[in-house]
Amino acid sequence: MNTQTPSLTIGAVAKRVGVAIDTIRYYEREGLLPEPQRRASGYRSYGDSTVAQLRFIRRAKELGFTLEEIRELLALSADRLRGVKAVKKRAEQRLAAIEQRIAELQRVRDGLAQLVASCPGHGKPEHCPILRALSDDEVKA
Question: Taking Cα atoms as reference points, which of 12, 55, 11 lies closest to residue 32?
Fold first, then answer.
C-alpha cells in the first residue's frame, strides 16, 4: 500500500510533466484530476499519482483524444473487468476518425496542389485560377 503523502507543488508537477500550471488547474476544474490536498498555507500539494495521471492525459491528447474521451479512458482504466475491451474500442474509434481526417486533408492538399500548378504566378488577378476558385459561387467537392 502506498502511504506516501503528497509533497509536490503545482510548479514541480508542471515541470515534471511538461505542462503549464494553468493546464493542471484546468484539468482539476474539468474533473480529469482529483482535487489536490492543501497544505496549511493553502497551497496545493500533489503526489506521484498526479504526475502519472497528467502524463496519461498528455499522451492521450498527443494521440488525438478529446478531453471527454480522456475522461472515459481514465474511468475505463479503473474497470478491471471490461476496461481493456472498452479502451480498445475507443482507440479504434479515434483511429477511424484520424484516418477520415487524413483522407479529407489529402483531398484538400490535392485540390490546392492542382490550383497552384495551374497558376502561372503572374498576370492580372482576375485571371488567377486560385483567386477564381476561391471566389467561385459554386462549391466543388
Answer: 55
Q: What is the mean pLDDT of residues 102-124?
A: 93
d(CA 12, CA 48): 11
Which CATH code is given to the segment(s) 1-78?
1.10.1660.10
In which residue are the cell numbers 508537477 written? 13
* Cell numbers placing 105: 486533408
Most distant pair of Cα atoms in the chain: their distance: 75
Torsion of CA 104, 107, 112, 115, to 10 degrees: -150
Q: What is the pLDDT of residue 39?
A: 87
45-81 pLDDT, tens digit each: 999 999 999 999 999 999 989 999 999 998 888 777 7
Domain limits, the chain: 1-78, 82-140
